[in-house]
């Protein structure tokens, strides 16, 4: 394969991965809203109508998994995963080459870590799918485990992919300061 | 020969049953092994979330993060369905020792409970019971079952289902640590918990009336051993662990009963009033409930397990021990 | 190497990796993974620990407070509640030397009660109060320093993401932690105001500024309009938690809904702004909870290595006094604070020190307050001080360099340290409201 086709392929894949990450992120965002609504529903149902929603705990737990793992790939994509980049910045201004190698190495290690997570979770998913395990209280409210394990698995795979593509495209537009997002566009 | 054993629980070392692992189970095992002198244990105890959280003990033992552990079974309704046997049979025995013994015998006479643990890669040793009976704690004076109608009752887990037959009563989910607040603020009218926990969380301050309904003791703890670890143990050690686990079962249940008695005294001393639920009301309540025991048995039957037989045998054991059920959960047809 | 040695070496490895810029959750996760693998010579065991930790930590019910309070903070910032309370405070402090600085501290303390993060506070107040201080000829370093210093209040006064994180690691009730944070937060605010007053009196050049031109006082109507919404929110959220009517999760949800209603009623939010607030909430939640997940792998690794038990035994034999334990603790936090963010510091040091603190009969709630305040000093110290970065970036003013912000924030970091020492010396400051 020539360098050119590789680049085209990587760029195409990257667009696809970004698209999926952004969509998953949007779904996760809707879950945030759902979380606000469900808890308020329970508070009002209990306080005003004497009819608490007995599944609130499980729904909240479920939403937390969805929010975190649906959004994690996008968090990595936009470089918002927690890191301390003071040293990298200093290094970047003096030794750009070393700096680049170090960045790619960090992304590679991170991709390996996400892959390990995917490998760890996959058997959990198949087991839960088979046994139909649930959490919650039978006869009161229960929720299945397998969708949770599946979301974690897919998220880890996507995170690994996003990191690998960052390496392939040497694309790591980091900034020293991570500002609250969207600040500027909203103020104007 | 020296054998290491990593003992885990997610609850802190000061919890009753964890304390007795340190003070009773471990020394007793050491003592018995010392008699022959063939083996010596090197115990590594890790409690209170150092390796696993309370809900994580089952997985922790399964995956080998610990060798021996105390699994809190009520967290795992779906993996350990048969463990709910005493929770689905309320109004039978408010006696930790009797219930612990009956559940443990059922576990050993029928294959189901051991099979469930086996599927989690662990070996069942014995059952623990740490609560003598759920009771109702109330802010306002309470006299009869009628007072529960239309009320909000804080509870946790399967006991919320005990409220299903009472007209307009609503269960509100909460943890032990929330009950004080829930009753104090009037978010709920009652909280369902056992006297020892009520004393720990100072319920007498906000709920000066206790309705002694004697809903019954419930098994919540099981000592298990990781299967791979177990397979590597010499027979002598296996034998000693099994023996001591049974002693531990009775020992802990005995302490639970003592504490329950003391807690009731303390509750009265702190200004609490204990109101006995009349026998007629107990019958009425039990009759009003859905037969959750039959539901439980049927579910196991459908899964190819001897659910109905276990239920019959369990109630038979308690009857032999002098505890006749208020409602014969096993007498009714399942469908 | 013994498990204990591997455990301690892994702590060092994590600190080094984090310093060179490895994503913090990755550093925690990978090092812990390798440590367990080496320690037990068992790859499957390491995979199993990963299996348990991932997902398990996220499933914690109380963690729903993280997105809920984050969302509430973002919505109320957009609704302009921070600017409103600042204007009211400013109207009150106008006659005092350094008054705008004091108003900034006061407004931050109030705004802190409706937001869970210091980043929100830093960005809101760099926009509203720094320009005003500059227009009144305040010393620029003081202007940015006071905003940086008081932004810290956002994570001490409840609700606070850091108090939530600590309550998870130390298994304390979120409600208790929130209540314990109130007095120390107000104390710190008072100490800042006191510092400004003292400097205004004895070193006026440090503050700078000229007296206010005669402007009209805010009318009662305006004051009510600007304070009622935030008061209502505080009453619902903190009042709900304090009385026990609402669990922290429910308080966060009610606060979010109420904040949204306020923002809509005042026509301060567009559909796009609303969506962005949700989006950012998700990003922050994912980043924090993934970090917590990795930290739980780390703390379990320490548990398997027996590090906490061994440290506890060591301390017992070495007979370190309370003073030296706390001294080491504070020094360690300040050292880590130079480069790490607050949540990482909490997640790394608390599992190490918890087993030392508990047997000494000390309150874990108090320890949590000490930890959060100590770890937040790092928000103000170079080279990585998040609050200072946010201020520099928000201002986007060439006349003020990042160095100016750090120099300006330094005295406030020292005031924090003094307050921290008081909090350590007098635990009742943190615990009084609970009893
Ligand atoms: Na706050
Ligand atoms: Na810093």
Q: How would you describe this protein?
A:
The complex is a heterotrimer of chains A (188), B (335) and C (435). Chain A contains 6 helices and 2 strands; from the N terminus they run ααααββαα. Chain A is mainly alpha-helical and 188 residues long. Chain A has one domain. In chain A, a hairpin with a 3-residue loop joins strand 1 and strand 2. In chain A, helix 1 runs antiparallel to helix 2 and helix 1 runs antiparallel to helix 5. The radius of gyration of chain A is 21 Å and the shape is elongated. Chain B is of the alpha/beta class and 335 residues long. In chain B, the strands form 2 sheets. In chain B, strands 7-6-8-5-9-11 form a 6-stranded mixed β-sheet. A 5-stranded mixed β-sheet of chain B has the order 2-1-3-10-4. In chain B, helix 1 packs antiparallel against helix 8, helix 3 crosses helix 11 and helix 10 packs across helix 11. The longest helix of chain B has 35 residues. The model of chain B has no long low-confidence stretch (mean pLDDT 90). Chain C is mainly alpha-helical. Chain C has one domain. Helix content of chain C is 77%, strand content 0%. Chain C has 21 helices and no strands. The mean pLDDT of chain C is 85. Chains in contact: A-B, A-C, B-C. At the A-C interface, helix 1, helix 2, helix 3, helix 4 and helix 5 of A face helix 1, helix 2, helix 3, helix 4 and helix 7 of C. Bound molecules: sodium ion (2 copies). Chain A: This is TRAP transporter small permease protein.
Give the arrangement of secondary structure elements:
The complex is a heterotrimer of chains A (188), B (335) and C (435).
Chain A: H1 3-47, H2 56-77, H3 86-94, H4 96-131, E1 134-137, E2 141-144, H5 146-168, H6 183-187
Antiparallel strand pairs in A: 1-2
Helix pairs in contact in A: 1-2, 1-5, 2-5, 3-4, 4-5
Chain B: E1 2-8, H1 16-36, E2 40-46, H2 57-62, E3 68-72, H3 96-109, H4 112-119, E4 122-128, E5 135-138, E6 152-155, E7 170-173, H5 179-184, E8 190-193, H6 195-200, E9 209-212, E10 221-226, H7 227-231, H8 235-269, E11 273-276, H9 279-288, H10 292-302, H11 307-320
Parallel strand pairs in B: 1-2, 1-3, 6-7, 6-8, 9-11
Antiparallel strand pairs in B: 3-10, 4-10, 5-8, 5-9
Chain C: H1 3-20, H2 24-40, H3 43-56, H4 65-78, H5 81-93, H6 99-112, H7 118-135, H8 140-151, H9 161-169, H10 174-202, H11 204-207, H12 220-243, H13 248-265, H14 271-305, H15 307-318, H16 322-337, H17 342-357, H18 364-376, H19 386-395, H20 402-425, H21 428-431
The complex binds sodium ion (2 copies).
Subcellular location (chain C): Cell inner membrane
Subunit structure (chain C): The complex comprises the extracytoplasmic solute receptor protein and the two transmembrane proteins.
Main location (chain C): membrane
């Amino acid at each position: 394969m020539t360098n050119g086709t590789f680049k085209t392929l990587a760029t195409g894949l990257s667009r696809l991965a970004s698209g999926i990450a952004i969509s998953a992120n949007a779904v996760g965002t809707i879950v945030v809203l759902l979380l606000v609504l469900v808890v308020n529903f329970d508070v009002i149902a209990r306080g005003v109508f004497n009819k608490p929603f007995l599944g609130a705990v499980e729904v909240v737990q479920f939403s937390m998994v969805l929010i975190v793992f649906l959004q994690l790939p996008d968090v990595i994509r936009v470089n918002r995963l927690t890191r301390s980049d003071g040293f990298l910045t200093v290094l970047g201004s003096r030794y750009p080459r070393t700096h680049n190698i170090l960045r790619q190495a960090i992304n590679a290690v991170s991709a390996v870590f996400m892959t390990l997570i995917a490998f760890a979770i996959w058997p959990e998913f198949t087991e839960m799918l088979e046994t139909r395990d649930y959490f919650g209280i039978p006869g009161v409210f229960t929720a299945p485990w397998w969708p949770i394990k599946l979301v974690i698995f897919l998220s880890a795979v996507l995170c690994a992919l996003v990191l690998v593509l960052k390496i392939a495209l040497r694309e790591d537009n980091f900034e020293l300061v991570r500002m609250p997002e969207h600040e500027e566009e909203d103020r104007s | 020969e020296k054998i290491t054993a990593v003992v885990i629980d997610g609850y802190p070392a000061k919890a009753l049953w964890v304390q007795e692992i340190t003070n009773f189970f471990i020394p007793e095992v050491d003592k018995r092994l010392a008699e022959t002198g063939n083996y010596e244990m090197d115990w590594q105890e890790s409690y209170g979330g150092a390796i696993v959280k309370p809900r994580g003990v089952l997985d922790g033992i399964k995956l080998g993060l610990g060798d021996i552990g105390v699994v809190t079974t009520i967290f795992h309704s779906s993996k350990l369905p048969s463990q709910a046997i005493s929770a689905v049979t309320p109004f039978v025995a408010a006696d930790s020792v009797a219930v612990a013994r009956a559940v443990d015998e059922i576990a050993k006479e029928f294959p189901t409970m051991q099979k469930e643990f086996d599927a989690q890669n662990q070996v069942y040793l014995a059952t623990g019971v740490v609560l003598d009976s759920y009771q109702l704690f109330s802010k306002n004076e309470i006299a009869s079952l009628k007072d529960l109608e239309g009320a909000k009752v804080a509870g946790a887990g399967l006991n919320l289902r005990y409220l299903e037959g009472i007209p307009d009563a609503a269960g509100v989910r909460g943890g032990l640590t929330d009950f004080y607040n829930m009753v104090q603020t009037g978010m709920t009218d009652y909280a369902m918990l056992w006297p020892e926990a009520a004393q720990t969380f100072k319920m007498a301050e906000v709920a000066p009336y206790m309705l002694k309904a004697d809903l019954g003791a419930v098994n919540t703890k099981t000592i298990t051993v990781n299967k791979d670890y177990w397979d590597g143990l010499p027979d002598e050690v296996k034998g000693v662990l099994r023996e001591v686990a049974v002693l531990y079962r009775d020992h802990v249940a005995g302490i639970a009963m003592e504490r329950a008695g003391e807690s009731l005294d303390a509750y009265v001393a702190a200004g609490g009033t204990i109101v006995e639920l009349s026998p007629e009301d107990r019958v009425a309540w039990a009759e009003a409930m859905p037969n959750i025991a039959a539901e439980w048995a049927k579910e196991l039957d459908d899964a190819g397990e001897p659910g109905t037989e276990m239920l019959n045998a369990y109630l038979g054991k308690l009857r032999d021990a002098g505890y006749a059920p208020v409602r014969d959960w096993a007498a009714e047809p399942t469908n | 190497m013994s498990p204990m040695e591997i455990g301690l070496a892994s702590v060092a490895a994590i600190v080094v990796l984090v310093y060179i810029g490895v994503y913090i959750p990755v550093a925690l996760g990978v090092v812990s993974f390798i440590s367990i693998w080496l320690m037990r010579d068992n790859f499957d065991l390491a995979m199993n620990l990963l299996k348990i930790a991932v997902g398990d930590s996220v499933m914690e019910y109380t963690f729903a407070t993280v997105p809920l309070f984050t969302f509430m903070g973002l919505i109320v910032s957009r609704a302009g509640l921070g600017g409103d309370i600042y204007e009211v405070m400013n109207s009150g402090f106008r006659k005092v030397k350094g008054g705008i600085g004091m108003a900034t501290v006061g407004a931050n303390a109030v705004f802190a009660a409706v937001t869970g993060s210091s980043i929100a506070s830093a960005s809101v107040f760099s926009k509203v109060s720094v320009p005003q201080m500059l227009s009144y000829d305040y010393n620029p370093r003081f202007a940015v320093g006071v905003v940086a210093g008081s932004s810290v209040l956002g994570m001490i006064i409840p609700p606070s993401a850091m108090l939530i994180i600590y309550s998870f690691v130390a298994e304390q009730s979120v409600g208790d932690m929130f209540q314990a944070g109130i007095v120390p937060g107000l104390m710190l605010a008072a100490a800042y105001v006191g510092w400004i007053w003292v400097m205004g009196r004895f070193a006026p050049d440090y503050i700078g500024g000229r007296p206010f031109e005669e402007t009209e006082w805010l009318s009662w109507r305006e004051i009510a309009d600007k304070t009622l919404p935030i008061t209502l929110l505080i009453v619902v959220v903190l009042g709900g938690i304090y009385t026990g009517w609402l669990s922290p999760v429910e308080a966060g949800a009610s606060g979010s809904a109420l904040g949204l209603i306020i923002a809509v009623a005042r026509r301060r939010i567009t559909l796009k702004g609303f969506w962005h607030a949700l989006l950012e909430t998700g990003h922050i939640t994912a980043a924090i909870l993934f970090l917590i997940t990795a930290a739980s792998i780390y703390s379990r690794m320490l548990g398997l290595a027996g590090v906490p038990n061994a440290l506890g035994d060591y301390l017992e034999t070495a007979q370190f006094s309370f003073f030296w334990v706390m001294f080491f603790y504070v020094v360690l936090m300040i050292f880590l604070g130079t480069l790490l963010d607050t949540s990482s510091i909490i997640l790394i040091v608390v599992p190490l020190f918890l087993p030392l603190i508990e047997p000494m009969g000390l309150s874990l709630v108090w320890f949590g307050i000490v930890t959060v305040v100590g770890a937040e000093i790092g928000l103000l110290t170079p080279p990585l001080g998040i609050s200072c970065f946010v201020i520099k970036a928000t201002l986007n003013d060439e006349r003020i360099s990042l160095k100016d912000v750090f120099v300006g924030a330094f005295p406030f970091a020292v005031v924090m340290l003094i307050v921290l020492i008081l909090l350590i010396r007098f635990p009742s400051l943190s615990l009084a409201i609970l009893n």
